[in-house]
Amino acid sequence: MLLEKLRLLECSLHGDRRNDPEWLELILHPEFREITRSGVTVDRSETIASLLSEKAAPYILSSDFRLTEMGCGYALLRYRTFYADGSHHALRSSCWICSDEGQWTLFFHQGTPAAGNAGVQG
Quick check: 107 and 96 in contact, CB under 8 A? Predict the structure, then answer.
């Protein structure tokens, strides 16, 4: 099931693999861009450098995953996150692209602070 596959790939970036340079090179599309929770646009190299420089990565919890297939090999994944301490609630969107070889890569990601905590489940 595509939803589960992309959910696992997405969540790999919330855990130990977010500091794995080989994994980041594999999973982030060469043209990757992100709009961060704070509204800053960053490219692939900036994202990788930022993740690799994290001293203590926050434990991120995710819920309410929704998938929209946008055509052959393109998908939009939307979900909610928050830190284990209950802070930093965010709405997130990720655009994924599947290569001819069947490898999904993250093309675009945006995190937006959530207006409230309604509907968030652990």
Answer: yes
**Backbone angles phi and psi of 18, in degrees to 5:** -65, -15
Range 79-101 burial, b when 16+ CB lie within 10 A, else e: bbbbeeeeeebbbbbbbbbbeee
Question: pLDDT digit string (tens) for 36-80?
Answer: 888 899 999 999 999 999 887 678 899 999 999 998 899 999 999
Q: Coil, strand or helix: which one is 29?
A: strand
Burial classification of residue 121, based on how many CB atoms lie within 10 Å of its CB (0-12 exposed, 13-18 middle, 19 or more buried): exposed
52-61 contact pairs (CB < 8 A, 24+): 52/19, 52/21, 52/24, 54/18, 54/19, 57/15, 57/18, 57/19, 58/83, 58/84, 58/88, 59/14, 59/83, 59/84, 60/14, 60/15, 60/84, 61/122
How is residue 5 written in tokens? 């596959």
Query: Do residues 3 and 67 make contact, with C-beta atoms less than 8 angstroms apart?
Result: yes
pTM (predicted TM-score):
0.88
